[in-house]
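Ticket #4471: structure output looks truncated?

Reporter: J.K.
Steps to reproduce: submitted the chain below (357 residues) through the standard prediction queue, then opened the result file.
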Amino acid sequence: MTDQLIDPLDTVNPLDTVNSLNTANPVDSVNSTSSETSPSGHPIVRTEEGVITEGSKVKWDRKAILWALPQPVLVLGSMLLAAAILVNEWGGEYYRVWTLVVAVSSTPLLLIAERIWAKKKSWLLKPDEMLEDVFWMASGGLLWAPLISDLYRTPVSDGFQALRDMSPLQIEFQPTTVVGLIGAALCIRFVSSFVYYWLHRIQHESLFFWRMHATHHHLTKMSAIRGNRTHPFEYLALGLGTPVALALMGASDEVFIVSAAFGMWNGKFNHANLPMVSMPVWDWFFATAQQHHCHHALERRQADSNYGCDIIFWDRLFGTYCGDAEVGSLGAGKGVRLSIKDQLMLALYSDERLKNL
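Returned output as attached by the reporter:
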């Protein structure tokens, strides 16, 4: 990926860099990231395979072009299909359930794709890891599914309806056409992602708020099934942002469903163990797998960037964008896998214990 040969002896030992960063308070280490650069001035990334590469370089060959297409095509395709089902009521009285199928089908399809075209074999999940992630996915699904279907109710779904009914804003996003539903969903995503961006950034810059987010960053492997690893406390900080924005702006159930299709497919792609490449122009506005893999890197320069998990526009605007094509080790702290107990208790641990995991 690099145009020049870089001598490893002329650079900083990566273990020294990692060790110095792992024990740092997130507040103290804001903007204090790895400073390794190549002779041409580009950041250096050391991959798991030991390859030293200029992280910002993307070699545009036939393979790269092909891997830039699936994410935008399937994300927009899922929104189009969900909107068409809603407008035409395909599936009879159960048409909303079919939109839920469209949204959740992203996980099994991408998991199959990972087994065929894995970006890194070392990231392929073992059975016990898969079971652990099923737990996280089920806990999130049981909370959010009632917002899309009427199979059962939760306080979250009831609160969404109540907030929308008493919204002080004189706005109603209730289109009845396919194009209108997609446009309204994307519009509200951009608005809600502005709030999400700053809340997410604060979590990385404040140790107090980091403890709620740390569970999601203690991932040592990427996979489509891992995007739901979210601490219950974090749902209050980040997860409710989009539903609240949708409710306050008077979004109909149909707009929420189309928005959910976008969020599910794009979120699963962003965590997938696939050799995805960011599509130019698309990646100026929408977050991609290549960008989000950087966000999960152990290296702080990469991890403290790309805060937009759906919309990347705000990162580009506020200077926290990272376009590296390569990542090394993943995770946080010491970069090791944590037990479910530790993952759940991270938000309650002392500062010192939190920093030493």
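Triage note (M.O.): checked the attachment and the full token line is present. The CA atoms of residues 9 and 32 lie 23 Å apart.
Status: closed, working as intended.
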